[in-house]
């Protein structure tokens, strides 16, 4: 089993172990966890500890300093033991804070899920009510609620829970909105599942990490708020102690006996800071994008291992030569290779087809060429990439950036993802021109329109002002090709540019690419699954499996006499064409039929 396959089939227990290890690797989160654990154990053991009654007053012993015999943390203004009051009070404060958090989480998340999933009027009504709650300064709102219900611990708990409902509702609604129209939810609807069942089994598991993250990041805040209400005399009522009320009572002795207020103040500080540190750590572990580094700002180029082995260039005349490329992804201490020792050559004016099943490493190879695999988590561990004989991986960042788009350009599979949704397409082509050519705006605009005409956008002058969503899939891909052509590159890397298109449009786009390649003498690295396309377009083929090139050769030779068992299997998989006489004639026939369909 490949390392990648192992990673994807890793059992849940091992995954949990990794999460735990990741949490413990974050030193601040680990410190927060152990501090909280110590506090939790201490307050759980309070009833068993030989502590004096926290409410027993002894006026003769008032305001004893810390480390007095029998009173480790001294006594307060009524002679009560501060250590005992502190431990019992911390119990109350934590219980109150966590209960309020749970109430806010349950009610707020339910509102968020229902509003986001139902949409329309229900969403509008619920979210406007939440907006009204948020429009009040929350502490004032909490004060108003306690004032209306009367002071007391339970009322403080309700008040804090109510004012925090909007945080959960808003966060969870945002995530649910995105999920409500996801394809897997549509599939669940089509399978006949009821709404409640969809919410519980499809939506809830997907929003649960967000709920946990919101709990972990707001719990500290809620404990502060409950302490605040008690400090103002609206929470715990005398003689009961909680951290806020102890702080409030100690305020009068701030100068004569500062320890009375410093002790509960420092305890609140420790609890809140450890909760926040742990909360941040949990958030990083639970969000797989944070864990893999996807949400981290990627570096300007793929990270390259310091001890990279760079094999010499054995094809100095090639436009592009990849030698022993090893690219993979890091996570914690592990490195999972996606491309394992790939070597390829692309001659000037040649079209090389890179073929392989999904996940074989074609895109990672293509992105490595210009250092575009996002790091973290991407890492080029070994190998060299020679562009006109010069090793790209040794180039300084600025030089590599100047090659992107100018010498090597990319056409991606989904132009809707690669085009900016809020910029007219003409502007996007102009930007590509401006990135490498210092020409004035009117000239840039002319060039952009000429490029759009070149790729077959009808009425390019008017269409340049339109936005990507106003174009069809095929037209968007033409815009993508216009952007790639903007600076007359030597090499175009097309990563499955026709996979998302129907056969008619596919034939048009392939025709366009082939015409442009021949007219401009560009080298084309064409990534695809489709042997019909390869047979018509490519001069040579490289077949990729599990991150390695298993076979390379002239298209005709590979298709008619495949050497590797994997290539034979891939060819046999071509629908309706896997059996019979001469494969090459059949795939060519398929392509010709597509073209006829396209021109019809
Ligand atoms: N950001 C990432 N983190 C971890 N693994 C990744 C990441 N991106 C890609 N991979 C892994 O690298 C391997 C190669 O992916 P790649 O996208 O190159 O495949 P491909 O051959 O282009 O597939 P497809 O034809 O489906 O696009 C896959 O197993 C994929 O799971």
TrEMBL record:
Q: Which UniProt keywords apply?
A: Amino-acid transport, ATP-binding, Cell membrane, Membrane, Nucleotide-binding, Plasmid, Transmembrane, Transmembrane helix, Transport
Question: Where does it mainly reside?
Answer: membrane
Biological process (GO) annotations held by this record are: amino acid transport; peptide transport; transmembrane transport
Membrane protein topology class: Peripheral membrane protein; Multi-pass membrane protein
Pfam families given in the database record:
ABC_tran (PF00005), BPD_transp_1 (PF00528), oligo_HPY (PF08352), OppC_N (PF12911)
Instruction: Give the residue spans that cross the bilayer.
Output: 28-49, 94-118, 130-150
Give the ABC transporter domain ranges.
322-571
Molecular function per GO: ATP binding; ATP hydrolysis activity
Q: Where in the cell is it found?
A: Cell inner membrane; Cell membrane
Q: InterPro entries this protein is in?
A: AAA+_ATPase, ABC_Ni/Peptide_Import, ABC_transporter-like_ATP-bd, ABC_transporter-like_CS, MetI-like, MetI-like_sf, Oligopep_ABC_C, OppC_N
Q: Which domain of life is it from?
A: Bacteria
Q: What does this protein do?
A: Probably part of a binding-protein-dependent transport system y4tOPQRS for a peptide. Probably responsible for energy coupling to the transport system.
Protein name, entry field: ABC transporter ATP-binding protein
